[in-house]
From TrEMBL:
UniProt lineage: Bacteria, Pseudomonadati, Pseudomonadota, Betaproteobacteria, Burkholderiales
GO biological process: ketone body biosynthetic process; L-leucine catabolic process
Keyword Lyase belongs to the record: yes
Pyruvate carboxyltransferase domain segment(s): 12-280
Native species: Pigmentiphaga litoralis
Signal peptide limits: none
Record protein name field: Isopropylmalate/homocitrate/citramalate synthase
A single GO molecular function term of this UniProt record: metal ion binding
Record's keyword terms, sorted: Lyase, Metal-binding
Domain of life: Bacteria
Record family assignment: Belongs to the HMG-CoA lyase family.
UniProt-listed Pfam families: HMGL-like (PF00682)
């Protein structure tokens, strides 16, 4: 089979993160109603898994202070997409479970310094906490994934060796996560790293679902998306409009834009099941709410060929 044929035979799942990672670092705090409208638009565009909010301290991340209200409003929508709640610790998990999240995503950071700055605990403690949360999620029948943050580099320590990241994967496997994601939290990663991490994870557990989360801080995100797809990744995180950034990672602005990813994949013959024009329109709508334009190529240049 040709490379094009291999691509055409695949479908890559997209997880929309604009309601969480996309807006968490924005100065304009969106109303709960605007967040629910964003979730409605995401679902209407055909995206079926959405990181809807995070259950973190409202003092540290004010944008997420209405997590329970967002989850309640979104769950009231008929046929809503699978709603993922991000958690960092036991308290966050307890809130997410009470809010009836469809899925849980727990974070472990691959850098000791970043882990202590971001989560107030070291890596070993976070692996233990994540493992306990995964066990509770499984007992409650809630699918749970683990995101390994700073998997491609750290703003404080610099390079993060692939062997260290894969050691974290190995330490998490006994807790049986449903999915493991590698996050380029500060947008420093390159395709060789993507291929090395995905190949290493597959060698540890060939059946594990793998996911990647890329930021475009240094304009490598789409190259990394392509490398991940060619390496057989199951799912990709992306954010409408390219909005996003981590409050605790200096200059880590800009998730890879969902509309740019969809354009790339579909031009390559890879099905996403997503309405590209609705994504472009929603990027403009969200930019209006946040007070600055979207950062995606498609939002600037439009689709090609142009829509009829």
């Amino acid at each position: 089979m040709t490379t094009e044929g291999q691509h055409a035979a695949r479908r890559v799942e997209l997880i929309e993160v604009s309601p969480r990672d996309g807006i968490q670092n924005e100065k304009v705090v969106l109303s709960t109603d605007d967040k629910l409208e964003l979730l409605r638009r995401i679902h209407a565009a055909g995206l079926r898994r959405t990181e809807a909010t995070s259950f973190v301290s409202p003092k540290r991340v004010p944008q997420m202070a209405d997590a329970e209200a967002v989850m309640a409003g979104a769950r009231a929508e008929p046929g809503h997409a699978a709603l993922i709640g991000l958690v960092l610790n036991q308290a966050g998990f307890d809130r997410a479970r009470a809010a009836r999240c469809d899925e849980i995503n727990v974070v472990v950071v691959a850098s000791e310094t970043f882990s202590r700055k971001n989560q107030g605990a070291g890596i070993a403690d976070m692996v233990a906490a994540a493992s306990a949360i995964l066990a509770q999620s499984r007992e409650a029948g809630i699918p749970a994934s683990v995101t390994i943050a700073a998997a491609f580099g750290c703003p404080f320590e610099g390079e993060v060796p692939a062997a260290k990241v894969l050691g974290l994967v190995e330490s998490l496997l006994p807790a049986r996560p449903d999915e493991i994601a590698f996050a380029d939290t500060i947008g420093c990663g390159v395709p060789t790293q993507v291929r090395e991490l995905l190949a290493g994870a597959k060698a540890l557990d060939a059946g594990m679902r793998l996911r990647c989360h890329f930021h475009n801080t240094r304009s490598t995100a789409l190259a990394n998306v392509l490398a991940a797809v060619e390496a057989g990744v199951h799912a990709l995180d992306s954010s409408i409009g390219g909005f996003g950034g981590c409050p605790f990672a200096p200059a880590a602005t800009g998730n890879v834009a969902t509309e740019d990813v969809v354009y790339l994949l579909e031009r390559m013959g890879i099905d996403t099941g997503v309405d590209l024009q609705m994504l472009i329109d929603t990027a403009g709508w969200l930019g209006d709410r946040l007070g600055h334009p979207p950062m995606s190529g498609l939002a600037r240049a439009g689709r090609f060929p142009a829509a009829a």
